[in-house]
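Listing S7. Sequence submitted for prediction.
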Amino acid sequence: MSRASRQFGRGVNSAIFNLFLLALGYSKTFLSGLLSLSTFTQAIASLAAGPYTQRTGERNAMVVASMVTVIAASVQVAYPEAGVLLAMAVVSSIGVGLTITSYSPLLAASSEQYERAHLFGTSQAVSIGFSFIGSILGGFLPGWFALSLALPLDSGPSFQLALAAWFLPTAISIFPLLFIRETPEPTSKEVVDTPVPVEPKGHRIVFVKFAITSSIIGLGAGFIVPFMNVWFWELYDMPTHIVGVITGLGQGTLAAGVLLAPVLSTRIGKVNTVVITQAFSLPFIVLLATVVNPLIAVAAFLLRGVLMNASMPVNSALRMEIVPKGWRPNLNAIYSAADRLTRSFSTQVTGPLFDQGQYLLPFWYTLGCYSVSTVLYGLFFRGAERRLDIELKAR
């Protein structure tokens, strides 16, 4: 219930929050700065939230994260002045950082081993489904409010009312958390001293390799991913409800990618799956950057999403296998921070380009970054699975 409410609100936000700011007259340069600030704060907050979560417990951290997020969201929507928007973006991103560090551990601490796989799978399915519904509904709500209350179409007030569907479900999501009882797993020396496939120096090298590939992917994603709703809305002059549907379908590509990933990784291996799916996504970025046709653009956007999302769970699994248990939280934190830090830089570039009418150039930047990251990933991790298998057989 908590996960569903929160993801529904995020789906609404992903569909129309950027459009809300443009409807108020803010430039795309300002939007870039706001998104960049949010992403940068998430990177820092994700690293800093770990010790806080360990002290207070995952459930309490999630309650605080939800409260912080809903307060920041409601203030942003109610008082959309530039200074308020920037300040609340920082506050909201702190909540996101807390959520990143506490949600998965909370699921693990609140469940038994035999039910965790089902619980995590169900949670992911709920997340995708309610994000999909929220995005589609978010696209229709501004028009519905405009017609019902005789407001100008795509006006600031119509978006404000629609965005109430962002923070109200987030507020509701707090209450189920209060009834969760954590059952912390006993800390075992075995977790830290688990035999590992490589020496500690090798682990540091692995950290660097994952940080490099993550930072380049984040850099490329920042050029286009936060702006796709703006891109469809302005370049193709699509109505808000159609943008919402496209955004919702984009959320659905995660589900398709998750289904595709295990099939490919079983047949060709994890590293090959990441390299091949990312490589096959590149031609669709070329289409987005060259063919100005709405149908081709939507198809290319969705197919690119399926292929890139197929690489994500496989890459995550490889990260968790390639280092021992005691190193995993740090690796995840560094991987996430590297992605968000570079993403916060590239996000600042696209807004000014859009203000200048350069709607296609950012895709070429993304193409270059994704190409470099794909090649480096193949070079860095080729043979990693074979070495892991040898080590496991030797134990």
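Caption to Listing S7: primary sequence and predicted structure tokens for the chain studied. Confidence is low (pLDDT under 50) at residues 185-199. The first helix runs from residue 2 to 23.
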